[in-house]
Amino acid sequence: MLPAPKEIRELTGLTPRDLGPGILESTEPLVLRGLLAHWPAVAAARASTGAADAYLRRFYRDATVTAMLGTPETGGRFFYNEDLSGFNFAPVRVRLDRVLSELERYRGAAKEPAIYVGSTTIDTCLPGFHDENTIDLGGRDALGSIWIGNRTRIAAHYDLPDNLACVVAGRRRFTLFPPQQVANLYIGPLDLTPAGQAISLVDFHDPDLERFPRFAQAMEHAQAAELEPGDALFIPSMWWHHIEALGEFNVLVNYWWRQSPDYMDTPMNALMHALMSVRDLPLEQRKAWQELFRHYVFEADEGTAAHIPEQARHSLGPLDGDAVRAIRAQLLKRMNR
């Protein structure tokens, strides 16, 4: 029997004005109960599913979105096909109001297809929504997105930005794992993914412990919470999270932001480059490069280049937008030889 996840730490009685660095820069997940209870969108959802649907339609302006459609046999789990050569769902471009109508059509059905609109910019598809449903993130340049669907399951994955996930309608269960559990979550391909991020291959509803035995170790470090309309969850950068929508109509709004300058590349580019240039070196050479990465990247400090005159440090000195563009140009030139 798998260990039960621990409960995510909860804070109550907060308002959006209370979202200081202690919360938005936390390195541990936090449940913020009732944080958004004052939102009109939440009030509509608490009234009824129909009211929540009608509230969203108020802001609709002929927007087209990408919807993911799965057969009832998927059980709402958006995943790969049997041999991991493709996926068990079909993405389609469709008007958002048609998606809402399809969700209404299958409401209460014994066998419903899986319908999911993920990571769609709110200001693009529902202009004006933010005017009524506001949140102060302390000047952070956050991207606000909306997620709409029925009973769906999103495999455990990580995101590079910090994430404030806000439940507007329905209920969602989140199961989180710290970054150190990557080896125990059995991650699938890095370059063929259902929605852009690599995912765990473990079915959380029916984990195959013969195929994935270390998942039991991951569950020893798992944290979980079930959120209602008006609740929010802060998910720190790089934490793995599995999300299950439990209601027949679910709406989530989330905000992503990075604690790093805009000119920084995504570290995933460095990882993919290391796969093709470092991973298959002889063992002793890999160890040598591991030491170089430790020295220049993972444990770099003021002493790393202190022996070099400041004007001669180049990429070893403080970086800014111009310095990063120069490094990127050098890399592109070398890779295109």
Explain what the structure shows:
The chain has 337 residues and is α+β, with helices and mostly antiparallel strands. It has two domains: 6-257, Jelly Rolls; 267-335, no CATH class. Helix content is 26%, strand content 24%. The protein is built from ten helices and 15 strands. Strand 2, helix 1 and strand 3 form a beta-alpha-beta unit. Helix 2 runs antiparallel to helix 3 (49-57).
Give a short account of the largest sheet.
Answer: 9 strands, mixed
Helical fraction: 25-40%
Q: What kind of oligomer do you see? A: single chain
Query: What's the Cα radius of gyration?
Result: 22 Å
Q: How many domains make up the 3D coordinates? A: 2
What sequence of helices (H) and strands (E) makes up the elements? EEHEHHEEEHEHHEEEEHEEEEHHH
Total beta strands: 15
Just give the CATH class of the largest domain. Answer: Mainly Beta
In CATH terms, what is the architecture of the largest domain?
Sandwich
CATH superfamily of the largest domain: Cupin
Number of helices: 10
Rounded mean pLDDT is: 95
